[in-house]
Amino acid sequence: xxxxxxxxxxxxxxxxxxxxxxxxxxxxxxxxxxxxxxxxxxxxxxxxxxxxxxxxxxxxxxxxxxxxxxxxxxxxxxxxxxxxxxxxxxxxxxxxxxxxxxxxxxxxxxxxxxxxxxxxxxxxxxxxxxxxxxxxxxxxxxxxxxxxxxxxxxxxxxxxxxxxxxxxxxxxxxxxxxxxxxxxxxxxxxxxxxxxxxxxxxxxxxxxxxxxxxxxxxxxxxxxxxx
Length: 227
What we know:
Blueprint: E1 6-8, H1 20-25, H2 31-38, E2 44-48, H3 54-61, E3 65-70, H4 73-76, E4 83-86, E5 98-103, H5 113-125, E6 127-136, E7 148-151, E8 157-167, E9 170-178, E10 183-190, H6 195-204, E11 207-212, E12 219-224
């Protein structure tokens, strides 16, 4: 387990505290709609941090060609209909480019600055001419509306119990996911980013925001700065 990350509950737990079985139960939401509206039909997508394929499967069903990358073999075992690569995102170096690079699951908020920088460089490096990077960010009140609880229509409860500052702009977040038959917890590190800080981080990797895709600013579409 990585320092500052932990997870509990039935089944395999990844190095960043994610429970494979929990994410296998998690329903897909509006992510495929947001993605499909922002990219060409049938685009080739490099999905960084695909997990069990929750979004992957919906994209494949819509006619996209997806290469799913995750560091967890247990996660990738659940992915269907896509090419899979087991690798750390920040070390990825493929000899190919893609119409779309997808960095979801708040990965841009990595607590480790160098990991974030490497991830964004990987996004830019694997982008084909005319392509775009789609990035999912935390909501503005992600760390301030705590503790909070949400009962999902699928029948489970999500609780963000705490978000504690631990120095250098990083926070330790503790969450709980309760189903009728099982409970999982996850503790992870997050570096909150204002819109300005987010755009500055993109600029370091040679990227710029083309537009924000949702009113809350959680989804952004980025393109190379020199375009």
